[in-house]
Amino acid sequence: MDPEASHWAIRSAPLCLSCKRPTTERIARRGNHLGHDGRPYFRCEPCNRFSCFGDMRGIHLNNPVCYCEGYLFSRRQIAGWDSQQKVRGAIHYVCAVGKCDFFEYCTDNDGHILRYTNLSEDPRSMGF
Ligand SMILES: [Zn+2]
Ligand SMILES: [Zn+2]
Fold this sequence. Notes:
The chain is mainly beta. Helices cover 0% and strands 20% of the residues. The protein has strands spanning 24-27, 40-44, 49-53, 75-78, 91-94, 103-105. The strands form 2 sheets. A 3-stranded antiparallel β-sheet has the order 1-2-3, with no helix packed on it. The protein is globular. The model has no long low-confidence stretch (mean pLDDT 90). It binds zinc ion (2 copies). Residues 13-57 form the GRF-like zinc ribbon domain. It comes from Aspergillus welwitschiae.
């Protein structure tokens, strides 16, 4: 599975979960501290809302499945993309294709949320 490949289940821009209009595809700018430069993503401009990334990064077969039909694996990512996230740096799982509101934190055995605020390595090598 090539993480940089387009997500197989995204055939057209996902609809915004708030206003139900099609989102717009964008490419993340350089200098993003979470290593997102060059990543394709979708966002709703009128709502100023991030929808999802367009690639296969962060999708692993041991991730929980989201609420979408067809047993779709969620995407593991790091909070900090925008102000929608409550706990900055929190590792969490979301719908990989922006079609449902699945959200789950990645926690350790004691139930604490795992966080990254500064990545020392390339996030790709860490599976993000
Ligand atoms: Zn919208
Ligand atoms: Zn979903």
